[in-house]
Amino acid sequence: MTRQEIINKLKIGAKPANIIGMARFGIRPQAQVLGVVMPFLRQLAKQIKKSPADRHQLAAELWQSGIHEAKILASIIEEPALVNAGQMDAWIKDFDSWDVCDQVCLNLFYGLKPAFGKCFIWAKRQKEFERRAGFALMASLAVKDKKAADKEFIKFLPVIKKYAADERNYVRKAVNWALRQIGKRNLTLNKEAIKLAEEIYKIDNKTARWIAGDALRELQSAAVRQRLEIKIKKRKLAC
Fold it and tell me: Do residues 22 and 44 touch, judged by C-beta distance below 8 A?
C-alpha cells in the first residue's frame, strides 16, 4: 500500500464522534484528527507487507502527513533497525499530544539502542512533550525491556526526583508513570521506588506530593506485592 492508500483507509476508519471523547482525555493535537481507534490501526499495520527499507520510507511519509493517527501508525510499522538517534530527536519535536508521545515510546523507541541514554537527555528538555518523552520512555523500558539490569533503572531515580516538582500536567503524569512502572518491575526495584517516593513526598511542593502519594498507594499495595512475589516463585521453578 502507498501512503495515500493508507490515508484513505484511515479516513474510512474515521469516527468523528471519537474526537470529542479524545478531547475530554486531553488529546487535542495540532495535527488533523480522524478519531480512528487503536485496534483499527494495529489491524491496518498487519496488512502493510513491505521490505524494511520500504517500511522505513513509508513510516517517514506517514509521520509527515499531518494526521494524528498516521503518526501513531508510523511508530507501529517503522523498521527499528533503520531508526537512528537523529530520527528519535526529530520525532519528539513533533509530539503534540500525550498519546502520540506514549505510543511512539511503547511501540518503537523502547527497543532502540539509544533508548536508555535518551531518557536522561529528553528529561532535561524544557518543552512539555519533549520532557514527557523522557519519562514515558523510562516507563516503556520498565514495562517492555525484560532483559535490562536493575542498575539501569536505578539510574533513573535521581532524575525522577529532580523533576517531580514540574507542575505541567503531561510531565507530572509521566514522572509518576515512570516511578510506578519501575517499582512494579521486581521486588528490588519496588523497594528502591518506594524509598524514592517517600523522599519525594517530603518535598514542599503539591505536584511532588501527588506524584509520590499516588505511586506509594500502588507500589505498597498487597496486589503489587503479591504479583512480584509470584514472579519470583515462577523464576525459581523455571530454574
Answer: no
